[in-house]
Amino acid sequence: MEGAEPSLISDRAFERGRAQQGTLGSGNHFLEIQYVEEILDINTANAFGLFKNQVTIMIHTGSRGFGHQVCTDSLELMQVAAKKYNIRLPDRELACAPFRSQEAGDYFASMAAAANYAWANRQCIMHWTIEALMKFLSISPLELGAGLVYDVAHNIAKVETHIVNGEKKKLIVHRKGATRAFPAKHPELPDIYKHVGQPVLIPGDMGRASYILVGLEKGMEETFGSTCHGAGRVMSRHKAIKKSKGRAIWREMEDMGISVKSAGRRTLAEEMSEAYKDISNVVDVVHNAGISKKVATLKPMGVIKG
């Protein structure tokens, strides 16, 4: 992402990020080995390089402690800025400053640096995953045939042009727990996908499925070219741990034909399927609303939780 300014990053952020490059982290971050169970749009799937029974890898992680510290550092400055510019916020959890102010400019440049850390992080993990697969299967890179479908952020602010009340306007679009879903012919799409639209990745819980969709024009009209990034929780982590007491979640997963590795039992309890909405229902809403169109269903075979 252009505009990153490393000189604005605190020593504490560098310290936290230095040892975490190439790691998943905790919470709902994961690496999954999946397979394409069903193709729902053959033409778009072909453009994305997807086919039935293909083995896929999905990686969900971000900027780790580096990005977290950038946020922490910036929030302190933003709280002062809001008062400075006489901005009244209805909730203490909100923070902002005029975009052309020094404070906002510094934040945006710091955020871009954190975003670049996240892309590099996923690139490292992808590289080592490919190496591990080649070693385990004793095959060459050519035989493995691995390629990246798409790498997209789900917590980021971007400067974009949108139609507002019939007029083209330049906006700052902040997506939190959401992802870009641009349609075919959008100028910001890579050339390889301009004729079909942007791949939209919506992961589900570790026991059900994930989906690949494609952005549609209606999304530009109704959601600033955005789609949800996941199923969403229906149960707090504390409640999930309480409900899983006495159960062996890893064994339940193995009974479903899914191998699981995690940092500990607590992580598996927090991330069990029942803690999330059914991804199929969520994706149906997105698809039927015309925001994004279903392309393929992916089923998990192996799950690594950070």
Question: Could you explain the architecture of this structure?
Answer:
This protein is of the alpha+beta class. It has ten helices and ten strands. The strands form three sheets. Strands 1, 2, 6, 7, 9 and 10 form a six-stranded mixed sheet that branches. A two-stranded antiparallel ribbon has the order 3-4. A hairpin with a 7-residue loop joins strand 6 and strand 7. Helix 1 runs antiparallel to helix 3. The longest helix has 36 residues. It is globular, with a radius of gyration of 20 Å. The mean pLDDT is 95.
Q: Number of helical runs?
A: 10
Please write the string of helix (H) and strand (E) elements.
HEHEHHHEEEEEHEHHEHHE
Largest sheet composition: 6 strands, mixed
Approximately how much helix is present in the residues?
Answer: 25-40%
Structural class: alpha+beta
Overall morphology: globular
Uncertain spans:
none
